[in-house]
Amino acid sequence: MSHATRSFRLLLIMGMAAVVAVIMSAPDALAQPGKTPDELLKGFLAAVQAKSYEGMVAPLVAEGGEIAAELEKPEQKAANMLSLEKLNRALAPRLAKGYAAISMGMLKYRGYQIYLWKLEYKDGGDDDLAYGIVTMDGRFRNFGVRPPGFVQGAY
What we know:
Helices cover 50% and strands 23% of the residues.
């Protein structure tokens, strides 16, 4: 694929994301009572930077029920702690220097709302893609951060 084609696709995706971002600002975009997806992302990134397991899982625990019970299982907590350690090692130094989370919109997919953000770091390095997953009835399910290279060759 030529550089011009990749650039055009990126520009098209960014334009579509801007339109979705305007739609996303509607009141029903709340992922948890009193918390916007942007606020939840900020809390998640603060928890990653502080290496706070409790902070990372707080939105899930707030949901209660089966999700909260699942988080209490030793094997699940161990897996989550490993993920937190990896994220902390990769992101904490960059987050400490500052970042901007730029909303790229929301996708509906198989009963979920998937919120997307571009993380621009003040260190001038590569950006990352952050996502938050919420059920259609507004229950928070997951956050993650990935380098954008994982979608390379998807088109």
